[in-house]
Amino acid sequence: MTGSSPINTEWKKVTVPFMMVNMQKTEKTVAFHTFGCKVNQYDTQGIREGILRAGYRETKGREPVDLFVVNTCSVTAEADRKARQLVRRVARDNPRVRIVVTGCSAAGDPKAYSVLPGVTLVAGRLQKDRIAEILGAPPSPFRISRFEGHTRAFLKVEDGCDDHCTFCIIPRVRGDVRSRSPEEVRAEAHRLADSGHKEIVLVGIHLGHYGRGETYRLPDLLRILADVPVERIRLSSLEAIEVTEDLLDAGLESGKLCPHFHLPLQSGNDRVLRRMGRPYTRAEFARRVEMIRNRFEEPAISTDVIVGFPGEDDSAFAETLAFCREIGFSKIHVFPYSERSGTAAVRLGNSVPIAIRKRRGRILGNLGRDLSDAFASRWVGREVELLTESWKEGTLSGKTERYLPARVRGEPSGRNQVVRGIVRSSGPLGLEIAPGTDASG
Asked: What is the pTM assigned to this prediction?
């Protein structure tokens, strides 16, 4: 049909043979691999639950597998390359496997995946929610009831982005902002709580735009989720200018919002921020951080910073370093700039040599570690709240309410518990906690 996208054409091509093959099998196995962000991890869980309803058995070992689902990322060209490399390896190791490829990289360049060996279906963003249906599962809403392999459950409330940062390709492959209704989110949060999850992380491609164009926004959602029987609710990432008094008040009213805010800075220089297409100045960013600190006791403020962006000279980088010290971030995720085809940034000129990008990355990384150590050490001798996630050799490990890595002595049965205790020490492995009280109920 004229005008059809490559993704839709690929979808139609594989529908009939894919269903015919599966109807003839008595036992079908499936494996999953997810690249990228928390939203992708949520999407994989939704696909997983639907496929398992279709009669598949999941395997995580090296046994031969009938179906392999690869959920791709496209934030960098390297992410694209790694996804294609995995697809080739899976096909080589399992000659009869049928591979389903979805996610951002698949949506951005479906033809690059459709020609790879073993690929039976390339599902873009409009088809991703129907993967299980094409495998024989009855039509059903795309939703999750648990979060496989995780103590903290990611709950996607929004998808898509309407902004156009010059370094980012994600709006093109994810589409415009789309929000789930508060009622749908609340119902899913209750299912996750019923499955035993004690912390829910609200995730989205642009979480702060939740409810854009609707009658509800993120503060309304926090108030609606206040009755969900979990210990903690965490926000994954927010743009600083989307931190409002109403949002912070709603978080305080709920009594469950973690005092941890991830606010991507990207640069501490206003000229570079304008070239990035970021909608704030460093002064506005600092004002929103102060707003958080005026309401929450010693909140953790983490961030992302890109170094070596086109036009970033030594002076601009020095401003970024100084601003990061001024804010006192609890953690800095450092990203040396990487050219991404299809973005406006590749046409800006004034490229920074790769060697300088790497050097600046090391310098900022060292500062980030110093700031993280300083923030963590402030909690020695004070009480924190730890959600235990894993156990090894008599030690339970997890994250505190401020997202600090921490550990406490205990038994395997102590996993997925909220424990309060006094911090004995802070070091490379995180906080060491003297066990106090089990706060989970």
From this structure: 0.90
